[in-house]
Amino acid sequence: MLKIVTMAAFSPKSTPPYNVRSVSFPARSHPSVAKLEQELNKISSWQVPTSLKAETVLCRLSSLGEIYRCVEDLLNLPMTQQALLQHRNEKLMNDMLDDLMRYLDVSGKTRDAAVLMKESIRDIQSALRRSKAGGELSIESNVNAYFCARKKMKKEVAKSLASLKHADNIFGDSPLFNASDHLLSAIVRVLREASLVTVSIFRSLLLFLSVPMLKPGPSKWYLVSKLVHKGVVTCEGQQENLNELESVDAALSSLVVPNSGKDFEARDIHSVQKRLGILDTSIEEIENELDSLFRHLIHARVSLLNILSQ
């Protein structure tokens, strides 16, 4: 018997190390089964990050896309279709379809919000390149537009986080987990782990995109005091543990605080451009990963829908 290792307690609300257990799968399973097992096991070893950075989020999104590519392959296997077809009227099957639609909605809306953020970032970059004497108003206007885009994205994120709450417990008490058909039971368990992983990774993404904003205050020292309060500025004034969004927030806020002076702006303009470039690249990579994931989710849902509609 080939063993599929799944996570005993994958909490969608956190990402601690996970205990694992084995469920049986037929020895002559398709290679996609082994690949799905490998991807789930990789995620089961993740540790709690001290701070969510773009690199971590991108790694998780990439792994999630690979998981759904494997799910699609699994759903297209004749043995899987036959096992699920016999139970197509089970409530769990329709719940799985609903969840896939929910994940499609979250990934689509998050991608749209990321596109708006990227446009705002590039507007600031353009304004900074054009800035000369007397150009501060143009920069400030674009900075304000950036924070408006951040605020809109946070609202969309809040809606998506609320939507994910409905996906937490659909697998709770289904009799299919203990079905006498070991193949069916194993398939359902693997699909459950994929769904729980999806909720967890989406939450990581959404929490990354919705970190509290470091908006401009009445003075440079007002901003510094906020950073000290957050625990991300040392006594020497060096910023630590900021993710890419917070880093840009802090840089832009410092750029436009009243009475900072042109010398201060000139001295830090290069640093601001560098941080904006890093964030722009990160947001574009997230957008690309969401595009890829969206396609895999569509294919997985169509495959499941085709089985249940027979």
Automatic annotation (TrEMBL):
Pfam families: BPS1. It comes from the Eukaryota. InterPro entries: BPS1_pln (IPR004320). GO terms for biological process: root development; shoot system development. This is DUF241 domain-containing protein. It comes from Populus trichocarpa.
